[in-house]
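RECORD TYPE: inverse folding
INPUT: structure tokens
STRUCTURE:
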């Protein structure tokens, strides 16, 4: 079973995007014991215009952002989930333009920024958040663990 469905919205398809995103999602599934649960993630790569429209439509925020996460399950449901047929864990929408600009802004590679967006969104999909400091610390620790396991470092 595929754990990744990748779609492109008004941007050019690139094999390196799929390879990296697939590698990150696989590691996330392994780390969080989601293999064999019949779940997959839908990732939409797009531009700043489209993510701004989606952000306005679903979050009533009229501005572009880097990533949007749309989980389908509550955190408590995921731990014990065992589905008979394939179902979606959630959707990620990532602005490739924002990934490029933030990589420059933070002084690291495009690969690192895209991988971070994917792992960050993944943890939102399984119920983690960063609203309060304690939750933020826990989420960041999990994100860094995945990136370190994949040897994707800040450069």
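DESIGNED SEQUENCE:
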């Amino acid at each position: 079973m595929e754990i990744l469905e990748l779609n492109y919205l008004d941007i050019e398809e690139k094999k390196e995007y799929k390879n990296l995103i697939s590698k990150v999602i696989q590691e996330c599934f392994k780390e969080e014991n989601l293999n064999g649960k019949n779940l997959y993630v839908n990732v939409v790569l797009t531009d700043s215009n489209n993510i701004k429209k989606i952000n306005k439509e679903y979050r009533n925020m009229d501005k572009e952002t880097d990533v949007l996460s749309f989980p389908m399950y509550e955190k408590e449901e995921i731990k014990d989930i065992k589905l008979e047929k394939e179902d979606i864990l959630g959707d990620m929408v990532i602005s490739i333009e924002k990934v490029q600009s933030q990589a420059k802004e933070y002084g690291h590679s495009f690969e690192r920024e895209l991988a971070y967006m994917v792992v960050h969104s993944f943890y939102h999909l399984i119920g983690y958040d960063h609203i309060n400091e304690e939750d933020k610390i826990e989420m960041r620790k999990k994100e860094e663990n995945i990136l370190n396991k994949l040897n994707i470092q800040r450069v």
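NOTES: The helical segments are 15-31, 48-59, 75-79, 96-106, 110-125, 133-149.
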